[in-house]
Design a protein that fits this description.
The protein is of the alpha/beta class. It has helices spanning 2-55, 96-102, 128-141, 155-166, 182-185, 188-209, 212-219, 232-242, 245-258, 297-308, 326-329, 331-346, and strands spanning 61-64, 69-75, 81-85, 108-112, 148-153, 171-177, 280-285, 314-319. The protein has two domains: 1-55; 62-346, Alpha/Beta hydrolase fold, catalytic domain (Rossmann fold, 3-Layer(aba) Sandwich).
Length: 352
């Protein structure tokens, strides 16, 4: 019996060893397939990016700022010039429907900040104050002297107000579209939310590096939830500009650096300055924040009221059907608000 048991144990060990070897081979094969798939995706992504540079050249002018080249596109005629500043992660192509509407009654400029749209990434760190200074250089280089109506959405609203603070005599009016407000965005809990958004952008960057985001959109175009106001050509441009890894990297960089080195006194309500009698329209969202941002709703709405109180000639509007991205989703409403400010400036009368 002992010999039989010994032989059985030997056969069992040999069989187990063979099974482990097959499992090892299978694991290596799967790893190899994964490596080949990722390498193929990485190579395809690089090729598509090179192709897209040829297919979708910048429609406007590229300006050297000393910290990378920036893209600005202007159209329309008539003063004052409207300058549109998007929120974080929104390239200018996404607000072309708004620009087209404004161009029917005034000269209007849109631009891409560092790493967004057609603009190059920043070489050195840049915060809100630096972005406002950079905008001043870009406008000057493009021959735009003002007076300006500054239109700022979300994070872009802080840039618009910083620009006004630095260049008060060039700004004739302002439209803030669900804008960030210093009394709200610099709260510790809000800054933690920024850190979470950075992590999300970094995850998207990793997926985009291997072409996985493009593959997802190719399988399900609705995954790229663009505004219905975009034309098919603008959607193709948007895909070319947004689905690349450098876009998500620069979105994360802007969030990481944008709030840096803001003086403590400017991190409190009113810290970016009041607007006196400047014509001001504040548009706030009507559909509340949801999910992990739901806690911000009450404070954000109070912040919009504070923004409207910055000028004695202001109007507070609610985009009842819209969430935060009003500037993209409701160009008609935003254009109407801009038109009211433009008209007030032209006729040298109060907004209200």
């Amino acid at each position: 019996m002992g010999a039989i048991e010994k032989n059985n144990g030997k056969r069992y060990s040999q069989g187990l060893g063979k099974a482990f070897r097959w499992l090892g081979f299978a694991a290596l094969a799967l790893f190899g397939l994964l490596a080949v798939g990722l390498l193929t995706g990485f190579t395809a992504e690089k090729w598509i990016e090179l192709r897209d540079k040829r297919l979708y050249p910048p429609p406007g002018r590229m300006t050297e700022t000393g910290n990378g080249r920036r893209h600005m596109f202007c159209e329309g005629r008539g003063a004052p010039t409207v300058v549109q500043i998007t929120g974080n992660g929104i390239p200018a192509v996404l607000i072309r429907p708004l620009q087209d509407r404004v161009a029917k009654y005034s000269h209007v400029c849109i631009y891409d900040r560092a790493g967004l749209g057609w603009s190059e990434p920043a070489i050195r760190p840049i915060n809100i104050a630096g972005q406002a200074d950079e905008l001043h250089k870009i406008l000057a280089a493009n021959g735009e002297r003002g007076p300006f109506i500054m239109t700022g959405h979300s994070y872009g609203g802080l840039i618009a107000r910083q620009y006004l603070k630095d260049n008060p005599h060039t700004v004739a009016g302002i439209v803030l579209v669900d804008s960030g407000e210093e009394g709200e965005v610099f709260q510790a809990k809000a800054l933690k939310g920024v850190a979470a958004a950075v992590s999300q952008s970094e995850r998207s960057e990793r997926l985009a590096r291997f072409g996985l985001l493009r593959a997802l959109v190719a399988i399900d175009p609705s995954a790229a939830s663009y505004s219905p106001h975009l034309t098919d050509a603008e959607r193709r441009e948007a895909n070319a500009l947004i689905l690349r890894p450098s876009f998500y990297h620069c979105v994360a960089v802007e969030l990481t650096q944008g709030y840096d080195n803001t003086p403590p006194a400017m991190q409190k309500a009113g810290g970016f300055g009041t607007l006196g009698t400047l014509p001001l329209v504040v548009i706030r969202h009507g559909q509340p924040f949801a999910g992990s941002d739901a806690w911000r709703e009450e404070g954000w709405q109070k912040a919009q009221v504070r923004l409207a109180a910055l000028s004695s000639d202001s109007r507070l509007m609610t985009a009842a059907r819209d969430g935060h991205n009003i500037i993209v989703d409701n160009p008609d409403l935003v254009s109407s608000a801009i038109h009211d400010v433009v008209t007030a400036v032209r006729e040298r009368r109060k907004l209200n």
